[in-house]
């Protein structure tokens, strides 16, 4: 495959800033794409080695566009994640005053993060969504809109000025980005890992979600994301996107996935990869009875019972 990474463009997005935090990005050609779908499709078709896209923010949770693209289509796998603190600037053409602004644009995921600021400062403004925050800045440069919410760093690139900076409704807001490639063997466990899967229930029944979550709970696996997404098969038909602590090579995680494979209509493995929020030294201690050694010991005991050696 070409040594290139696709990312949600154009140039000047938060996605590009986060991508450049990966050491390997310095050795790849970074190619902006107009949407999350087109960036991921570039990987599926072999145009790019991997794609870098936003998947979750701390204000609204999972980014549905990315989740839906990972749920559907040819399988892809997550290899890395990056966390980026997010704060917005209101970018305008030179000379524009706050009272001049009648229309504003940004990526849809930005709106929940600046909603209160808008209500307090621009209550009558018309909001229009853009393909990305940087694309919104480009549209302001072209005169399509009066202002855009984007990173302050995008101002110079699009000939704009930051009229207001440090805009955010939630303190310490972060967005999580992931590096996505074609399926392959997961990287070795680091001791601070995350496993992502998508689950489809075999049928709709009382306690169905409890049954799925029970496979994790009984093995002491903490969940970090649980989000339902419609399957497109009708009202009430959902799949579940889950991030769980641990690596598929951990016995507790492997056994949970085996249990889910038995009871689910379908399980899509999205990868086991290093966590960006903590290191191995910061991971919470395992609950008693959930370590690899205890799983091995229990399996050995069953084998001895089967042989009459108990």
What does this structure look like?
- The chain is an alpha/beta fold and 310 residues long.
- The chain is 27% helix and 31% strand.
- It has 9 helices and 15 strands.
- The strands form 3 sheets. Strands 1, 2, 3, 4, 5 and 11 form a 6-stranded mixed sheet that branches. A 5-stranded mixed sheet has the order 8-7-9-6-10.
- The longest helix is centred in the last third of the chain and has 15 residues.
- The chain is elongated, with a radius of gyration of 22 Å.
Give the topology string: H per helix, E per strand.
EHEHEEHEEEHEHEHEEEHEEHEH
- Number of E-state strands: 15
| Residue share in β-strands | 25-35%
Counting helices, strands and paired strands, the structural category is alpha/beta
What is the count of DSSP helices, taking H or I runs of 4+ residues? 9
Largest sheet: 6 strands, mixed
Mean pLDDT across the residues is 94
Quote the distance from N terminus to C terminus. Answer: 54 Å
Looking at the structure, what is the overall shape?
elongated
What is the rounded Rg?
22 Å
Helix content: 25-40%
Low-pLDDT stretches are none
């Amino acid at each position: 495959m070409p040594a290139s990474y696709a990312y949600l463009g154009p140039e000047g997005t938060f996605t590009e800033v986060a991508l450049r935090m990966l050491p390997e990005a310095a050795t790849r050609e970074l190619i902006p794409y107009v949407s999350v779908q087109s960036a991921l499709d570039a990987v599926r078709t072999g145009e790019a080695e991997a794609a870098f896209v936003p998947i979750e923010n701390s204000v609204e949770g999972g980014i549905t566009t990315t989740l839906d693209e990972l749920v559907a289509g040819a399988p892809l796998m997550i290899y890395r994640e990056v966390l980026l603190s997010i704060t917005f600037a209101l970018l305008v053409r030179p000379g524009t005053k706050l009272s001049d602004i009648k229309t504003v644009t940004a990526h849809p995921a930005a709106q929940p993060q600046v909603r209160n600021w808008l209500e307090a400062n621009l209550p009558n403004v018309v909001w229009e969504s853009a393909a990305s925050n940087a694309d919104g800045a480009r549209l302001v440069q072209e005169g399509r809109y009066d202002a855009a919410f984007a990173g302050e760093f995008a101002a110079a690139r699009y000939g704009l000025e930051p009229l207001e900076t440090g805009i955010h409704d939630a303190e310490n807001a972060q967005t999580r980005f992931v590096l996505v490639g074609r399926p392959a063997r997961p990287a070795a466990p680091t001791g601070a890992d995350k496993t992502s899967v998508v689950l489809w229930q075999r049928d709709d029944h009382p306690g169905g979600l409890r049954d799925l979550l029970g496979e994790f709970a009984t093995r002491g696996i903490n969940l970090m994301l649980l989000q339902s997404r419609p399957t497109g098969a009708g009202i009430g038909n959902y799949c579940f996107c889950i991030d769980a602590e641990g690596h598929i090579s951990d016995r507790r995680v492997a056994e949970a996935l085996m249990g889910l494979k038995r009871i689910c209509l379908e399980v899509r493995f999205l990868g086991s990869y290093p966590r960006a929020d903590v290191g191995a030294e910061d991971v919470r201690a395992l609950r008693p009875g959930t370590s690899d050694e205890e799983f091995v010991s229990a399996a050995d005991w069953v084998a001895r019972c089967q042989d009459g050696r108990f």
